Amino acid sequence: MGEHTIVIERLLDAPRELVWQVWTEPDEVTKWWGPEHFTTPREKIEFDLRPGGVCRLTMVGPDGEEYPSDGHFGVVEPPERLSFGEETTDHPMIESGETTIEFIELDERHTRVVITSRLVCADDLIAMAQAGWASQLDKLERLLAA
Hints:
Blueprint: E1 2-12, H1 16-24, H2 26-29, E2 45-47, E3 54-60, E4 66-77, E5 81-86, E6 94-107, E7 110-121, H3 125-145
Antiparallel strand pairs: 1-7, 2-3, 3-4, 4-5, 5-6, 6-7
């Protein structure tokens, strides 16, 4: 296990308030969270959107395997910044992690999202995490386009 930081940026063709909404409302999160072929059922999302509040999600893989995340929100600054993380996990490849998302308004129709994940994890997990974020951001872009 080592300390790693992943930074991913994506330009979204949507107003910042809408992007904030699809990141923070469970009914919206269920539509896009998780890489391609993964789902996050609404009944497996629990948010208490405040600093220290619960942030629980369980992704379900195409084979039915579940990937729970049982964490807490850190920063909640609508519609500019959001952070969440887990201090410890049961996952064999990750010890802990914290993710911060910045929502940068470029104009009334475009938002840059900057995702910074700080992880204590196996080196092999980094490429998987980057691919997973890219895939789920593709799903988010499709949702926003609709």
